[in-house]
Automatic annotation (TrEMBL):
Keywords: Apoptosis, ATP-binding, Kinase, Magnesium, Manganese, Membrane, Metal-binding, Nucleotide-binding, Receptor, Serine/threonine-protein kinase, Signal, Transferase, Transmembrane, Transmembrane helix. Pfam families: Activin_recp (PF01064), Pkinase (PF00069), TGF_beta_GS (PF08515). Serine/threonine protein kinase which forms a receptor complex on ligand binding. The receptor complex consists of 2 type II and 2 type I transmembrane serine/threonine kinases. Type II receptors phosphorylate and activate type I receptors which autophosphorylate, then bind and activate SMAD transcriptional regulators, SMAD2 and SMAD3. Receptor for activin AB, activin B, activin E and NODAL. Residues 1-22 form the signal peptide. Its EC number is 2.7.11.30. SMART domains: GS, S_TKc. This is Activin receptor type-1C. ATP binds at residue 226.
Length: 497
């Protein structure tokens, strides 16, 4: 009897678990979790050809990424290139799909002759004529340069990547099309792949934690290509995932173009393609140039706008989750031609899922750059269950970046040489212990010189910095508050943004 009761209870529990539980899918790149993953969205299986070999990919797609609803980009196939299938029951993506060979056959009508076929024989040519007519109209418009029409993604049309990749389109056009026609999170996957595979690498422009950064050319325009070593697949995937968060695009966040994993037979090359900014990082920029008061305000305000957008949660189906950067520093901020900042390197970012009030990945202890770690991160008192803690740590780092900028501000003919924060208090490449002693035990902060008080803008910057550096994270300013204060300053100082 007892056994039976236990059995019934177990069964009931399993039933409950099945109802409340997430969808389980096969996952080709999840060695850690036994080639399985869990999601609130869909299972996806995709088959494509690279270098004559069939590749199978099975992954989870989170609900956030199932855009537009009904026909998500992630679930699209491209004829002769990519066969993709999304489904919504456990392990349904275990199927082996074939890449369909491009064919002119109208095989959707079946193979035996019947009334349906007769209709097809009659309707076929009519249909073909319509298609020809449409192509004609399209070509006509193309020649007329009548670009006022913006092609929307026709999901039923398997050749829509040709529309996207029409020969004379620049990346800006492509991405503009995307952000006006849908999610605003980027190009569809197969378009990303096509773009990535037609980039010509030019020169190496940097080495990062995860690999190299190159300048590349695509249709005459410059792009930046971050190439991850194959051991860093998780970092590549994570960064691509974060960049494709719905509604992330913002003028002060590095513009993401494409992610691609190229298999060259022996190893996988992992690419992340983004906008290219010739000034490079804020760190390089400040090393080379001093800035005017106007320049300083522009840099500071644009960085705050970018961070405010990242942090902000937008509710609704087309909303965006709150995102904390976790590795903000002058080397991870780029300077655009117009003197504004673009926040980059989102590989360590965490997203907040407000419905469940959870963070989308298990945040590991102390990541990021030691020099920029907030006191609560250094002494491990940060409350990692609380998403706002990560935002507060970002603000502390932003304060340090502001200090780096303000030192290079040329007011009344004086400016200081470039230095990293805490340059006078810790050695280069400091250990966590060395940082903790200075920042937590001695409670020291970078020096705010007295002469800054004589210039309104530097006075305001100094005040913001101090309010970013409080030992108590919750007492610090928010990115939005900083943005508002600096906007006001930019109006007073007549800075044109
Ligand atoms: C998918 O996962 C199920 C359950 O773990 C397993 O039985 C099946 O073999 C997997 N399919 C593939 C193609 O890996």
């Amino acid at each position: 009897m007892a056994l039976k009761r236990v059995a019934i209870t177990l069964l009931a529990l399993c039933g409950l678990a099945a109802v409340g539980d997430a969808l389980r899918c096969n996952c080709t790149n999840c060695e850690k979790t036994g080639y399985e993953c869990e999601t609130d969205g869909a299972c996806m299986a995709s088959t494509y050809y690279t270098q004559g070999k069939e590749q199978h990919v099975r992954i989870c797609i989170n609900r956030d990424n199932l855009v537009p609803p009904g026909q998500p980009f992630y679930c699209l196939s491209a004829e002769g290139l990519l066969n993709t299938h999304c489904c919504y029951v456990d392990y349904c993506n275990s199927v082996d799909l074939k890449v369909p060979v491009p064919t002119k056959e109208v095989n959707w009508l079946g193979s035996s002759w019947g009334p349906v076929e007769l209709v097809a024989v009659i309707a076929g040519p009519v249909f073909l004529l319509c298609v020809l007519l449409m192509v004609g109209v399209f070509l006509f418009q193309y020649h007329q340069r009548a670009y006022s029409h913006r092609q929307r993604l026709e999901v039923e049309d398997p050749s829509c990547d040709h529309l996207y990749l029409a020969k004379d389109k620049t990346l800006q056009d492509l991405i503009y099309d995307m952000s006006t026609s849908g999610s605003g999170s980027g190009l569809p996957l197969f378009v990303q792949r096509t773009v990535a595979r037609t980039i010509v690498l030019q020169e190496i422009i940097g080495k990062g934690r995860f690999g190299e950064v190159w300048r590349g050319k695509w249709r005459g325009g410059d792009v930046a290509v971050k190439i991850f070593s194959s051991r860093e697949e998780r970092s590549w995937f994570r960064e691509a995932e974060i960049y494709q968060t719905i509604m992330l695009r913002h003028e002060n966040i590095l513009g993401f173009i494409a992610a691609d994993n190229k298999d060259n037979g022996t190893w996988t090359q992992l690419w992340l393609v983004s906008d290219y900014h010739e000034h490079g990082s804020l760190f390089d920029y400040l090393n080379h140039y001093s800035v005017t008061i106007e320049g300083m305000i522009k840099l500071a305000l644009s960085a705050a706008s970018g961070l405010a957008h990242l942090h902000m949660e937008i509710l609704g189906t087309q909303g965006k989750p709150g995102i904390a950067h976790r590795d903000l520093k002058s080397k991870n901020i780029l300077v655009k031609k117009n003197g504004m900042c673009a926040i980059a390197d989102l590989g360590l970012a965490v997203r907040h899922e407000s419905i469940t009030d959870t963070i989308d990945i298990a945040p590991n202890q102390r990541v990021g750059t030691k020099r920029y770690m907030a006191p609560e991160v250094l002494d491990e008192t940060i409350n990692m269950k609380h998403f706002d803690s990560f935002k507060c740590a970002d603000i502390y780092a932003l304060g340090l970046v502001y200090w780096e900028i303000a030192r290079r501000c040329n007011a009344g003919g004086i400016h200081e040489e470039y230095q990293l924060p805490y340059f006078d208090l810790v050695p280069s490449d400091p250990s966590i212990e060395e940082m903790r002693k200075v920042v937590c035990d001695q409670r020291l902060r970078p020096n705010v010189p007295n002469w800054w008080q004589s210039y309104e803008s530097l006075r305001v910057m100094g005040k913001i910095m101090r309010e970013c550096w409080y030992a108590n994270g919750a007492a610090r300013l928010t990115a939005l508050r900083i943005k508002k204060t600096l906007s006001q300053l930019s109006v007073e100082e007549d800075v044109k943004m």
